[in-house]
């Protein structure tokens, strides 16, 4: 008798896959958001019927856009606060900011497709730990707590990694 695909999957297998997908999507979308900007366009003011106002008035409409030219690793106010922290010298922050978005996207994609799953989870944990370090220094306790939850999720995923399925590589 032929075994059906997924017939031997346990609850831990499904749990790991769900957690792996969630962590991957969180990292990918967070990384993509590092490439957002705002485009401002002038458009005619519309009346109650959706027609251009008879006065010819114009309004500015802000639209979210994506592009490499909009790359920003962190919010400017956060970057300013981190820049004032003596334990985070500029020669460290500049390259960190340069790779942060790309690292989030890359690690998220690796995790999503199951490429060296344990390694990508561990590296993602180190990345989130580094973000936590910066937030601790500038006393952003809410962000520290959120990242702590992410670290716990990564630790749980690492403990379930033996149940990894649908992956490009099974070891690593």
UniProtKB/TrEMBL annotation:
It comes from the Bacteria. The keyword Transmembrane applies. The chain crosses the membrane at residues 96-116, 121-138, 144-161. Keywords: Membrane, Transmembrane, Transmembrane helix. This is DoxX.
């Amino acid at each position: 008798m032929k075994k059906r695909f997924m017939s031997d999957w346990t609850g831990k297998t499904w749990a790991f896959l769900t957690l792996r997908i969630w962590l991957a999507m969180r990292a990918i979308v967070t990384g993509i958001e590092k490439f957002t900007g705002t485009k401002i366009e002038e458009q005619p003011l519309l009346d109650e019927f959706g027609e251009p106002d008879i006065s010819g008035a114009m309004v500015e409409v802000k639209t979210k856009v994506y592009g490499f030219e909009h790359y920003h690793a962190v919010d400017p106010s956060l970057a300013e606060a981190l820049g004032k922290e003596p334990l985070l010298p500029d020669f460290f922050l500049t390259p960190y900011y340069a790779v942060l978005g790309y690292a989030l996207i890359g690690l998220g994609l690796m995790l999503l497709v199951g490429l060296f799953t344990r390694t990508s989870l561990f590296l993602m944990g180190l990345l989130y730990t580094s973000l936590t370090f910066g937030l601790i220094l500038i006393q952003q306790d809410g962000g520290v707590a959120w990242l702590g939850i992410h670290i716990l999720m990564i630790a749980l995923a690492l403990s379930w990694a033996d149940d990894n399925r649908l992956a490009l590589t099974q070891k690593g």
